[in-house]
Design a protein that fits this description.
203 residues; mainly alpha; three-stranded antiparallel β-sheet; 9 helices; 7 strands; globular
């Protein structure tokens, strides 16, 4: 599997892997880069050299410019049009930035303030959260608990302790964080397993 991912990254012309027909996403390709890097660590290969071409495409074609309202990343790179879709979602921005940290920390740091302005919602004394669009929720691709989990990983990775603590405070209250039979989980989150796993990664 790792070999095929690596081969695809070399053969597409833009350095990434399409996870839907003709469409390559920033968050999904973070996992392709992780596959390359982990394979190198385990087997002494040099797969991670392929990561550079995809990161160049992200920098050149997928970062949205202009007001924070536009978001951070174009949702997907459209292979046949050689351009990114000019719309962003909190889901793909939070997930994309959080797991890009090991591969292009300078870019993530550069885009972090824009992400905070657009995507972080202040809940007052309850903390803060990363909202989810009604469209994303209808498509079951994201919800507030999932997005806030990715946001917490990002804030922790950047070193923004205040925001990370605020996101955790909100999530713990809003999603019913509890211990049961030695297990900790968000019992009221729409997708308990996924949301709890993201919290564990953030921790």
């Amino acid at each position: 599997v790792a070999e095929r991912i690596h081969t695809q990254m070399h053969s597409t012309g833009f350095g990434g892997v399409c996870c839907e027909q003709g469409m390559a996403y920033v968050p999904c390709n973070n996992h392709a880069m992780a596959s390359n890097t982990l394979h190198d660590a385990l087997h002494g290969t040099s797969y991670r050299e392929a990561n550079g071409a995809w990161l160049k495409t992200v920098r050149d074609k997928m970062v949205l410019h202009g007001p924070a309202l536009r978001g951070v990343f174009g949702t997907a790179y459209v292979k046949d049009l050689h351009m990114a879709a000019p719309v962003a979602f909190n889901f793909t921005d939070a997930w994309g930035l959080a797991f890009m940290l090991p591969f292009d920390r300078p870019l993530v740091r550069k885009l972090y303030s824009k992400f905070k302005k657009r995507s972080i919602s202040d809940a007052g004394s309850e903390g803060a959260f990363v909202s989810s669009s009604p469209l994303s929720e209808r498509m079951e691709s994201s919800d507030v608990a999932i997005n806030t989990g990715f946001g917490t990983i990002l804030a922790r990775g950047i070193g923004d302790v205040a925001l990370a603590d605020s996101l955790i405070s909100y999530a713990s209250s809003a999603f019913g964080a509890t211990w049961q039979d030695g297990r900790y989980f968000y019992k009221d989150a729409p997708r308990t397993l996924h949301s709890t796993a993201l919290r564990a990664v953030a921790e």
